[in-house]
Amino acid sequence: MGRFLACLMIGLALPACEKLGIPDPQKQAAATEAEGRAVGSACRHAGRALEDCFALNPEAQKAAVFEGWRAMNDYMTENDIAAVKPTIPPKLPAEDKPEEAETHAEPPQHAEEAPPETPLSRLRSRSRNNEAH
What we know:
This protein has about 130 residues and is mainly α. The chain is built from five helices and no strands. It has a domain at about 30-85.
């Protein structure tokens, strides 16, 4: 009877591990995969290339990002949904530098804005420079 009561108490105490802050590896893995699929899906909806999505989200699982990107691509193709152009340019992880304070009150005047540089365009320019040498 004592062993039964001890096993019953342990069985009842195990579900309380979450309240103690002990992480559940299965739940963490499922959450990480779901987040990766959401990132990939959002990248595709924004019209970003898969490689850009990988570069912009290095902490996300690549397989999950690809799965989300592909699922959104299939959905958009089936329903004739156009990509939504992102209004905020991507900020690459290497570009996390503190911004300098502006020294003048009026914004600089630009004749024309160049399109934002993407990781793929950087690789292409590097390969062109290497071929020239």
